[in-house]
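>> received
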Amino acid sequence: MGSILDQVKIKNQYLISILSVGIVASLCLFTRDYLDYKIVGYILLVVVSVLSMFLAILPLLLSAVLSALILNFFFIQPYYTFHISDAEDSLLLVLFFIIALVNAVLTNKIRRAEKILQVKEIRVNTMKLYNALLDSLSHELRTPISTIMGAIDTIQSKSVHISEENKENLYAEIEKASLRLNHQVENLLNMSRLESGVVQAKLDWCDLEELIYNVLDHLKDDLQFHKVVVRTDENLPLFKLDYGLMQQIIFNLVFNAAQYTPKGAKIEIKVSYNVDVDFDYNPDKLFPCVITIADDGIGFPEDEIDKVFDKFYRLQNSKTGGTGLGLSIVKGFVEAQNGKVKLENREEGGSVFTLSFQTLTMNTKEISNE
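>> returned
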């Protein structure tokens, strides 16, 4: 009996999803000659956002897909076809679909987590995550989306002649904004994974020097006004760590250093193999890896150092923006690999993050001899 009721409930949700999007789109269709299709896109995005608070994931995904198809078929010229002649319109439609999908999935995940968690403290944290998500969508995501929309409008403009060089610059701005948007979404997804307890390290042999240079390549635009130095021990071994988690850890720490230190500041990344690190594990069986990321900026207020790894915490005098998730994600990903993270201010100025991992090692000479 219960399963039949559940099936009926799910069918009703599909019906609500289709009717809601259909009715709103029909109303917009009557004013198509007066409304820009971008405004219609924003309206449909709001509909998907509202539905995400009530519907299950599959009906919700249906509403996101249906909204994108309707926007394309009825509101983007040429009408009544899925063909899009303008490349900028295609990019706008893809961005609309991605934002609608991310909003729907993340909001639904948070709602499901809130139902599952019974402990009051965890439920409060879940609501904080929900609020941080909405705050990020309305503030952090607004800047890159506005940049993308503004660049597209300029490129599409019939009244303004744009040189090929300026077009290339606008495309570069779109790319930068897209990367920033991706970084914010990554942080939200990672915090959602940590909150739900699904982060489990997949340990494999990692070349940390190669990993660090890959991260620096992705951050080259953010680091263009900083001096970055990488130091590693000679004949550094491979370490058994999770490559994906390590990549996100290094990315967040270096990105933070780039954002919160003045232009010209030095960022130093050091990787060493150290058997003398104090751990609660058996040092005779496992050998630690130590990574430090230091800068010569202004450092952290002493009374706030113990709080910087807390979820949603932002320094009192920090610049506007951000969700306070970056460092808490670092701590969660480090601890998922049986590691420890410590923050200290340097005597000569600036700060240093120390990441210590109790992990197996493999000398690269052993690989070449096999």
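>> The chain has a mean pLDDT of 77.
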